[in-house]
Protein 1
Amino acid sequence: MDRLVNTVRPYAWGSPTAIPELLGVAPTGEPQAEMWMGAHPGAPSRTERGPLNEVVDADPVRELGKPAVDKFGPRLPFLLKVLAAGAPLSLQVHPDLDQARAGFAAEEAAGIPVDAPHRTYKDANHKPELICALTPFEGLCGFRAPAAAADLIAELGVDSLKPYVDLLHAHPEEAALREVLTALLTADREEMAHTVAEAAAAAERLGGDHAPFANLAHHFPGDPGVIAAMLLNHVRLQPGEALYLGAGVPHAYFDGMGVEIMANSDNVLRCGLTPKHVDVAELLRVVRFESNDPAVLRPEASPIGEEVYDAPIDEFRLSRFVRAEGAAPTDVTAPTPQILLSVAGRPKAGEVTLAPGESVFVPAGEKTEMSGAGTVFRATVVA
């Protein structure tokens, strides 16, 4: 197996302290948002054999196993992260596989550099994802029922928002959500800034269910995404609880640290709460305008003590082991590639001791036992 040296991405919304505390190192004073573990070319983990993407490229069948290569192709299908939000992330959505392939091909044909600020598709893959809370975790996930969103917005008492309330009450669900989001993202920015300021003051005054949106307006004054966020379900996770986010589901994270796993992609379409590029036309093509009740996932225990987070996707499978002192070793040998991440204690993968925040890549089929006390997340695939 390969001990991984991982890149921490310093996005502006990151907590300056959470990831350093996990790793047991001094904060740098800068935000530290995501620690990437995997073979994505944007920030591949490093091993003694070289960058993990190059290790996989050199012999995909040996590293990934034939079943995974046959099913997903010659690359590691997932990307594992530790995410630490100290401020709200952008309101965003991810494409499905067909949308990602078409969008990437179109931007490649147009000659748009992959690092251009107006580039939407960084790769040709979809990005379903699952986030499991390590600390109390807060965010948004999926659309509220239009009537519930209308009531929340109406309670602000802002006259300029009344047309949106009327739309949400008057139309079938899909049309209502589409029309209101479109109107918010295409409205005159100066007029919308006044509306958001008035709405933020009302939300601050009302508190309760409105308090999260007052906080958003504090971080993003005048951003129409503040009102768009009120169309979504507000969710709080306790440690060990998780959310699965499929293609087309709008979401945002506000605060907290979690283990996140996704298909091996960096494709994000933003809806608001960001100074970055918002491609409204493409966004409206990708978003699924349907309300849902976000299902909080709790792990299901297996006979070997593995707690599995069930998700309707094969590119990744996330589970965890919470090991007590003196517990018998557990055989975690698998015919598929694995990344093992410690978040507590000092468990061992084979002969490798893993302090919190440390991880290893285990090639397919490599004999591996887990021993010692601690909590370990296991990322692999269903092949």
Protein 2
Amino acid sequence: MRAITIDSHGGPEVVRVRDDAPVPVAGPGEILVRVACAGVNFMDIHTRQGKYADSQTYPVRIPCTLGMEGAGVVVAAGPGVAHPAVGQRVAWCIAWGSFAEYAAIPARLVAVLPDTIAFDTAASAMFQGCTAHYLLHDAAALTAGANCLVHAASGSIGQILVQMATRMGIEVYATASTEEKRAVALARGAVAALPYDDGGFADRVRTLTGGRGVDVVFDSLGKATLRDSMRATRKRGLVINYGNVSGSVKDLDPYELGEAGSLFLTRPRLADHMADAATVQRRADDVFAAILDGSLRIDITDRYAFDEIPKGHARIEAREQVGKAVAWI
């Protein structure tokens, strides 16, 4: 079968586009899926670079097939799997192997798709949608009347966070690197969209909130923004660092959290919030329902053919991607 694989970690040069990869076999607790469409994500870059080489949360090891999000049809079930059934349409994320014609996926990570959700929509919504869902409902536990700051608000997760939060009655402030990207955040419902301004966003947020700061900051950038995110947060507020696109913060003293106003800081991961099939299906159902009722819009800005997937990764790595990219397998 066709597959996009890596045998070592490194730059784009380690990626192999293969026509001779073996078709996987569904093992215990797994299903075999004929992949129709796959999401193209920054996590693919991190996988290639080796950022999960020692991870226990995401135990992806080389050699491996890239692609951690997809949608397709179940063609076989491994021992012990009664659901989903052969022939059902499904979607998944944080299970590697989607950049291939067939993928063996843990059944507990799969959501059954409603007939009204197309494969490309599912492959564009599963990872970022479930991430935004747990960040808002579980990690932050925000309710109507609260406020928050969303970094990288024109990105795939950022856009969904803005829309979901606005739908819940939460006031959203946003940051993005260009005027074009800030316009996207405003269009999704943010009350203000700010440049990063070398950390100046924190002062602007303080001004806009009457000196109080926001209840929660959703920070996917890490090193470049985290300390200023703390400055933008109210006393006893929460900073959620759910990504390290700009690099990891390796020198943070907990004392700083006290000095910033007795803040809470957490570094959650989606895997710990997708612990079983019922939770995966519940989150996916909420995301798909919002898409169908029109309250959640996910723009698929790029659609790639199989051989073009490395091109999509290059665009993401160069920070040129706005919205979501998918690949037809």
Protein 3
Amino acid sequence: MRLLIATDAWRPQINGVVRSLEYMAAEASHFGAEVTILSPDRFPSMPMPGYPEIRLALARPGPVARIVDQVKPTHVHIATEGPIGFAVRAACRRRRMAFTTSYHTRFPEYLSARAPIPQAWSYRALRWFHGEARAMMVSTASLERELEGRGFRRIRRWTRGVDTQLFRPRHERVLDSRAPIFLSVGRIAVEKNLEAFLALDLPGTKVVVGDGPARHDLQRRFPRVRFLGALTGEDLARVYASADVFVFPSLTDTFGIVLLEALASGLPIAAYPVTGPADVIGSSGCGSLCEDLREAALAALDIPQSRCRAYGETFTWRESARQFFRNIEEAHAGA
């Protein structure tokens, strides 16, 4: 398999899409695949309006088509519904090449949170984008059911994994804050509903890792919260291991790789009972899911660290990659 993965999300962005695709490329050789990533670093780019840290590739159809012809892929996977994704989709359609897609982000909800754009319009556009794909991959059962109800078809499941060697319980605690420590990690933007966490009346300390367009305003409004900025690698792993509960206030995420990182680090989860946390936690007993986020956060304090770590170890990137490459092979074979 010579697989071309087209993505508008790539380094230096820090998000679940980038992380997932990096691990798929790293695992490719175990499944007889050679992967080429077609990403924004190959094109001029401009800042995304209202989100300057994300750059949109100025990917014109001609140059994109030439790259597709040079790579000569046997399989094509389009990971995002952005300029590169649209250009590769058009190239595949012109060449009558089959392709698969994946649904990572709730763009209709994100757009409507920022502008008066009806979600029905956005979902119609997404059905058109994914409609010609041999398969559209989603991360959870509840998201699959929801999208089927919205008219999406040929859906296949693709779960996610976590690096359990990096994210693990540790004896040292790098956060010298008053316990208990309630941690949240992710992009600081309106669609992440972070304010629901920051406004909670909780004992101890709230800590936020991440950056984004809402950080300055939230940091000004919640001066007692510790904002550590964006962290990666060992720095991020040590912070996870220094916390007591991981709070995930998002109502719109399709999965939440940070949930797996927290579990692998031994942290119980506090979240709303919505797609993503409900699928990840399931009946594991490793989290408290409640419409009252404060109640969930306090209840999570009683969940054993060892249970969370053991459950986190069941999510591997090797299994995630097995599903990913199997989906592509079966979809292209018409299975």
Protein 4
Amino acid sequence: MTETAPRPTLEAVAARAGVSRATVSRVVNGGDGVREPLVERVRRAVEELGYVPNQAARSLVTRRHDAVAVVIAEPETRVFADPFFALQLRGISKELTAHDNQLVLLLTEGRDDHARVARYLAGGHVDGALVFSLHLDDPLPGLIRGAGIPTVFGGRPGWHDGDEGVVYVDSDNRGGAREAVRHLAGLGRTRIAHITGPLDQTSAADRLQGFRDVRGDADPRLVVESDFTPGGGERAMRELLARRPDVDAVFAANDLAASGALRVLREQGRRVPEDVAVVGFDDMLPVAEGTDPQLTTVRQDIEEMGRIMARLLLRRLDPSGADDPPAGVVLPTTLVCRASA
């Protein structure tokens, strides 16, 4: 067995710096009232000794935990299979890490998990929450409001009751969908179909509205409700071909659904883009560049959305901040043309 060296104490730092224990405590816990020369001596002693502040004690002083909950209203099988969530978590993690905050991931497998998440958030374990992938009937917003912690939502909050204090980050889903459908129409396609996402989510509803903005007179059989998964895209594409075998273009609500649609078209001998042009939404490179042919899609900066969510929450948590963060941030989208359309 090897003996480990004892951890440096607050008293050891005070002795090395030649100041009182109280002065060291104020410096390491972010307190005020210490002259700059003494602050520098304490910081130098902390570095030389390798002192690590006790987080529990620090929280008692600052009333901060330097931890943020990320709540995803989806089961883990969906979260870990969809690169969208990985990209958004990467952006969140980068921003929190840059500000020395920890990320605590909470998933909701089912309704029973909602009360558990609410209890955790209300229990004083984290300073705030980032919440995304909500559905319209989701009780989480009300439960989080009851927990009384600062929150930023990912996605336009179509579920909210007019509360102007709701802060959210989203992409221009409707505008991006319009651009996708106009691109298909510009290619001379006249029987353009839409594979939607789950319409109890505002992103999918907005993309459907964008499709209707351009093709308001489209045959209702050319719209099939689906989800944001490859399997959902496959099922929807089979249904479309059964309804309208003459379909010559498809706008899918996300890249994963588009990848499923492409598989079915290939199985049924339809050439892409010669017979059927396909456009997705997201521009998740592992998906969009991995399809055959590579996918034309609407790009939204998913990682940047995560970073901005975290940035807005940290602004809300900063007691020195002079301005409140904006209620809503909507990022632009762009069409990325590849071989499928």
